[in-house]
Structure formats: structure tokens, C-alpha cells
Amino acid sequence: MQFASLSATSPEEIRTAFNEAFSDYLVPVQLSAEQMEQKLQVEGFDPSCSVGAFAHQKLVGQILHSAGFWKGKPAAYNSGTGVVPSQRGQHLTQRMFACILPQLKEKGLACSLLEVIEGNDKALRTYLGVGFTTVRLLDSFKGTIAQPLADPEIQLLDRPDWQQLQQFWDWHPSWQHSPACLQRAGSSYKTFALLEGSRVIAYATINPLTNRIPSFGVSRQHRRRGLASRLFRHVQQCYPDKPLTLINVDSSASGTLTFLQAVGLQYFLRQHEMELAL
Known about the structure:
By secondary structure, this protein is of the alpha+beta class. It has helices at about 10-20, 35-45, 90-105, 120-130, 160-165, 180-185, 225-240, 255-260, and strands at about 1-5, 50-55, 60-70, 75-85, 110-115, 135-145, 155, 190-195, 200-205, 210-220, 245-250, 265-275. The two termini are about 25 Å apart. It comes from Cesiribacter andamanensis AMV16.
């Protein structure tokens, strides 16, 4: 078994190994080429910070890392750790971490973070063994919004101002929903908004590839007026073919959790957000 960065590995090789590794996951994942391309681009994938395990030159395990900033510090985000079923039982995850973590530290990164589904006890034990600790719990929801309705007052924003919109947030989003990722998503995400004059007072952003809502918010001065509900009904009407999903909602954000259930979404899983100081 050989270990090397993913700098010389094609996106298609990464996708093939990713899909095989996650085919029997607690929540099976199978990404199309378009979805994988978007994931890597939006999350800030850095192949030089990532590592693969190669058996006879075939990628059989990988840790995908993005590089950026987290809570003001340079950080690596682990957007996917997986080993194909035929190569398990060789401690490849631990060996890949042993290979890449010193390199992340040498690059000046201060911490590494990841998420793991509650109930995936083997992975959780592995990450704890490497030195990660749980810093918060994140809940996920999905469902079809009742009474979807196109709202003529809702506008599509060409260029959302994330500097302004993040002022609406009550809690810090996970990495893949951070302002930097939302900015990188560009026009591949669609942001719908209600305005007062020229000023946005409420918005909801959707990724049409997955029907996932990575971000939404209402200004504090305009809450309890049904604005978020109007946006969710509008988004569901615009993208009716699949249920809406929201992942990684801070489990302590009682107001957000209450709203999501009131609008018709159901809780379906919890994740541990974990960090490791390098």
C-alpha cells in the first residue's frame, strides 16, 4: 500500500473511490460527476492537503481536505474520509491520518475539522483515537413543504452580499455553508429574497443539484411575520421534484429547529462536528 497526495489524481478517480467507499454508509452517498465537481469547487478542495491510499496504483482510500479559515484561523476541512469495502481492516484511515496531519501542520494550518454521523461508532472511535474531539452537534432535516406557492414579491438575487446576509444568522454554519463556500458556489446556487425597498430583509438559498438549502435567514427586525415560510413555499414551488433538505443545523439553535419542523420538515440524522488542534 502506498500513500500520496491527490495532486496527480483525477476528479473521476476521486469520485469513483468516494462512491464505492460510501456505498454502504449509514446514509449511502452516490455523487454524479457534476455533483462531485461542485462539491470540490464549493468546499475549496486542496489536493495537496489531501491523501490517498493506493493499491497497485488504484485509489482505494482517501481523505479529502479543503483549506481555508475557520474561526479566524487557517484550517483544513475533512470533506470525506473513506476506504473501499475490499480494502478495509488494514487501519488505512489511521495510516492516512498519520501521513497527512504532519503535512497540514507544516503548511501552517492550525486545526482540522470534520463531521461524522451519530451512530457511525467505528468512525467516531477512529477520530477520537486520532485526537479529534466533539465541539457541537448538528441536526439535519428533510421533507416536502406543504402548500408550495410561487410568490410574486420574491426576487432572485444575482449576486448575494454574504457580508450583509450573514448578519441575519443566529448561529455559525458548518464549513460547507460558510460565507467562503457560498461565495465560491456563485450562480450554481440560487438565492431568493424578500426586499424592503432595495434592502434584503429575508432570503433562502438552494442548491438545485441536490435540493439542499445551505443557508437562509431573516433580519432581526422583520421576524415573526412569516417571511421565511413564504420563502420556503416559493423555493419548493420552484423545485418541486424532490424534497428539500437542510443539513448541519446547530442542535442548540432552538428557534431554527422549531421553524423547520413547523414548516413541515422532519429530523433525520445528527452529526458530531469534531476538531483537532494541529
